[in-house]
């Protein structure tokens, strides 16, 4: 099997590559080749018997998608994207990458006239307030960011292109991936990870919102698990509704902190400093809280059961256990 | 006030123009000028003191939207579109007109840097089976046609562009407009109108589906009423969810025929010939049935109360009473 990954230099992309090289097979087939694409040069980890190639460029540029599809990959993970904050401040870039980039890729597959599985990472940012207590699968998406709008539009394309038989698409709406490894970033959601990550490194972290804020999380490990499951699932089981809300752990920030205290002790949680920030809270208040994710669970997508598990996954995967 | 109408040569467009020239005012302001655009040359009815100009061309062509926005119309009715059947058989045309045409228009307004009201005719084709008994406003749109997909994508753009303050958009999801005047067309939904229209003209009509099929209708007169209401509504009342499912009359085909018999007698309904067509039925089975349309009703959008009223509106407006 030949695999193509867009956005392969990103956080989820790198973890997916590592997992695929370890598994050496996907959806019951042996992996022969993995092509990685990103606007930032992706690393090319070595693995005996698997060809790993890296391509660098703008996915939305003329001809870029066609070149990536030329070798007719059987499995395409479309992860490339501009994050929420950037899509909001840079209008043109967001539409160019998240909408036009996806459409160009989908059209290149359509015109290549074969039928690969396409797994697309959408986001729970397709949803906008007000919400019911628990958001059901059939709740309408009304995004409150340009990022969420672009993801929704790409979802709609994925669904229509699948219905028409151009490819076999599965869209997975990821919850916030937490604990995000690496440096703090400027995303409004950054604090959900930094209040765990920084204290575990003995550093202070700032909490800009009240402890009562509810949000849904899954670990990077679960995100990769979702991608693998989406790659292997029988399309007939998915049916015509190709975009699935992924499961996760819905908790208050207070519960996140209690979990951190259980796992790492109060010396660690003391490093969280509450500095209320009205601007951040205003954004976060419009974010979805809890999801039912019934269809995804029934289709075999699994996430952690508790925030303790999410913290332990971070300690195992990033801090050497 | 200066008004722009795209798709002005179409069925709804022509009726809207007639109504505006009769009212001579819109949203509490006197109408000074109406610009009509269509790929088919629109008629230019005369009215003292109102400038009516016609422009002909492809809305999606480079520069077309910019030219239409040059005079900064205060009110834009975006009705241009390729119908469902055509968007399904001609993939490129559907995406070009319904998606790219809308995006080009919206971008021309964005770049002109002013803030008109934009009223966009979406469709209940954004919804796809399976449905609950009555479809609530918060039900998720999962289109089962390329047309519905394109309308959904344009809705998402309208919403985001409104949120960002580029314009003040209201999307109205029209139910099937019935009785559609004029010649029978090839739309799969055509029979809903032809079983009323043709018999009233003393001609036979074919019913391809069982009488138990449920569908929601509003008259062309109501469609124009929705557009006028959307033009005048206070955007703050609409809030962030800019796309509204319009009310209509949800009836079985059997109830349509009973209404026709009440209004016009059994000599007329005898002209309906039942010729079951599996292909048509297969399409129609995935169409939405009944809508709650609560938000639209609360916001003052009104349709007929019964199918008898819809037939009487047709007789008054098209058959001289
Ligand atoms: N991490 C999360 O919490 C989360 C939540 C919901 C959805 N997602 C989605 O999952 C996917 C992966 O997330 P991530 O956390 O790894 O994001 P990331 O930002 O780490 O990775 C995205 C990658 O896309 C690349 N990219 C950006 N513009 C590009 C272009 N024009 N051409 C080619 N590549 C380009 C970036 O360089 C980056 O490496 C993204 O599509 C993201 O929107 C992530
Ligand atoms: N009539 C219905 O039952 C119904 C239901 C739901 C939604 N709608 C929507 O309402 C709107 C008006 O409906 P209608 O019944 O008057 O449709 P119509 O087909 O009679 O009118 C649409 C007009 O758009 C024009 N058009 C097509 N391509 C164009 C292009 N590239 N550039 C410029 N103009 C172009 C056509 O020439 C036509 O005159 C459409 O957007 C339609 O999708 C209609």
Question: Can you summarize this structure?
Answer:
2 copies of one chain form a homodimer. Chain A has 321 residues and is of the alpha/beta class. Chain A contains 13 helices and 14 strands.
Protein model, in words:
Chains A, B: GO terms for molecular function: oxidoreductase activity. Chains A, B: It holds the Pfam family Epimerase. Two copies of one chain form a homodimer. Chain A is α/β, with parallel strands linked by helices. Chain A has two domains: 201 residues, Rossmann fold; 83 residues, UDP-galactose 4-epimerase, domain 1 (Alpha-Beta Complex). A seven-stranded parallel β-sheet of chain A has the order 5-4-1-6-7-8-12, sandwiched between helices. A three-stranded mixed β-sheet of chain A has the order 9-11-13. In chain A, strand 7, helix 5 and strand 8 form a beta-alpha-beta unit. In chain A, helix 4 packs parallel to helix 5, helix 6 packs parallel to helix 9 and helix 9 crosses helix 13. The model of chain A has no long low-confidence stretch (mean pLDDT 96). The interface between A and B is medium-sized, with 22 and 22 residues. The site of one nicotinamide-adenine-dinucleotide (NAD) has 24 residues of chain B, from helix 1, helix 4, strand 7 and strand 9.
